[in-house]
Amino acid sequence: MNKEDFSDEELLRLLSAEGEERNMLYKKGARIKADYVGRKVYYRGLVEFSNICGKNCNYCGIRRDNKNIRRYTLTDKEILDAVRFAYENKYASVVLQSGEVESKGFTSRIEKLLREIKHISNNELGVTLSLGEQTRDVYRRWFDAGAHRYLLRIETSDPELFKKIHPGDSRHDFRRRLECLQSIKDIGYQTGTGIMVGLPFQKPEDIAGDILFMRDFDIDMIGLGPYIEHRDTPMFRYRKLLLPPEERFHLTLKTIALLRIIMKDINIAAATAMQAIDPLGREKALMAGANVIMPNITPGKYRDSYKLYENKPCTDEEAEDCNSCLEARIHMAGDEIGYGEWGDSKHYIKRQYNEKQG
Ligand code: 5AD
Ligand code: SF4
Ligand code: FES
After folding, report:
1. Is 3 among the domain residues?
2. pTM listed for this prediction
3. What pLDDT, on a 0 to 100 scale, did the predictor assign at position 119?
């Protein structure tokens, strides 16, 4: 544990840490966070603006074939009202997330919204997109319209496991996911990815491989959380193969701490899914190395329809509720909130500088 980079075997050993050893790992994650990025938590107001999705991921509650939910799309006005809430409450940046749609109409709608968001916030709000796989051209158009960060989880870096958790058609292709991530990075976005921890069929070796993948890809931001079963998905039938929730939770925390120790100056989100297992899940993630929180600013009436997994917190709340709730939670974790600051990934800033120097 005194080292700051690890081999495959060492990672495996640390991923199985328990008791006092496990606590030491979390403490080390916290110390590296304090030393390299400080104890400020940055907000990204999350707008889940549509649950319409063309994909059919076997784990996800809003997959195309789930007929058990009401599909919705926020109007431009609803989106911009949520964005205005974020701006007025000094969140400094927002995330636009939805199911995956690839179409001309969708591309230009996002382009228009990006310009609008920049306009209503005097160019001050940062915008992250989390809109899945798109062509390089689409990523470029959105970048040119003002988006500067993009989140695209790889879900797992093992092509075989990727196949097991997705339908075996061309719409769910590991190589395309990887190419998309590369395009995002090439275009100049701050690049975020992540995985689900505790998937059925996932072995500790897979998670060690994921950690090394994120290191070697030189990722700027990470969002990862525990896999949580959803009854209206094909993967629900494997629920007996899962680790008990508490173990899944700790495996996720250990992964966060290890990524913080190895990658030091990246941004790591304390995912909402942590709180689906443990009421203090997000605080615990902050105390193991995470430094970003995505307060939900989606209008309350839609939240119940954006359940990627069951037990999702904040579905009965409005943006104001999450705002005051989170302030208390973050102070409880001993951190302060970086109001009004973009809180860019320090890693990205350094990476840009090095690339310019050649
Ligand atoms: N449990 C946890 N996370 C999930 N996601 C989708 N379905 C689930 C689930 N059942 C995550 C995926 C996706 C992100 C938007 O939500 O990692 O990339
Ligand atoms: Fe669609 Fe994303 Fe859910 Fe897959 S994980 S079904 S792409 S919303
Ligand atoms: Fe949404 Fe606590 S963060 S209610």
Report:
1. no
2. 0.97
3. 96
